[in-house]
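Please produce the structure of this protein holding zinc ion.
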Amino acid sequence: METKPQFNEEELVAKAQQGDRNALSQLVVNYRSRIYHLGLRLTGTEQDAEDILQETFLIMVKKIHQFKGQSSFYTWLYRIAVNIGLRKLKSKPHKYQHVSIDDPDIEYISSTEIADWPDFDYSKFARKHLRKKLDQLIEKLPDIYRTVFILRDLHELSTEDTSKILQITPSNTKIRLMRARNYLKEELEKIIDKEGLI
Amino acid sequence: MKNDSELYKQICEYLGCDFDSGPCKEIQDHLAKCPSCEVYIDKVKKTVHLYKEIENCDEIPEKVCQKLFLSLNLNEPKTNESKTGADNHDFQRFRH
Ligand SMILES: [Zn+2]
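Below is the modeled complex.
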């Protein structure tokens, strides 16, 4: 279920559609950080994130009159940004060889105890090393899994909204999220096995 | 559990859902008597938590913002709301 926007976004969007520059500016302010971080996670580079940010809002300004309100405004905007990001990814060679993705092997018993894992307090000031490892793991995910993980777990969008943005079914979103989470867990576990607490 | 493909399917499905809502009764019953599944799920949850902890979608470099508004030919609002990093209460609404 979508949550109702605060700040009366509908009004803001309506004003922006009538050409109100202040309303447009406010929409940019409301979403700029999220679109920037979406681009950063999708592409892994600041330059690409900045390009995606600019292109997304240029399209928003140009096409906001076409927004019909059938979905929420942010799903519309996210869809624009995701499409720009994916197009960008296709046009360049991948930084990492993408991995193959498996379903969970729940019966596999690993040697590490859950207690060996970094705890949440630790991660708050997460050492650079841990951060870097986590970043790299996301980048290794194939695009179809990475996009779902970013939207669902990092941007905390609902399954429904994520499905609308990516134009896939909700059950597809769930399967991709399960596999992405599982891959990240497996890889993190390998690192912890090898290096101990990072 | 290996033979119970229905339960395996349920656990997989749970691993693709919101963790806040907790697993269904059948999974809960299984976890109570199967430590390996329990640890497995806990590790997946912990992985997701670690990522949530390090991700900060509320900040954007000031220079990037300035360039953005320039390229859009819009004025950056000068209220408190517009301050970099001030969008985070707005971000809350995505949380379910
Ligand atoms: Zn089990």
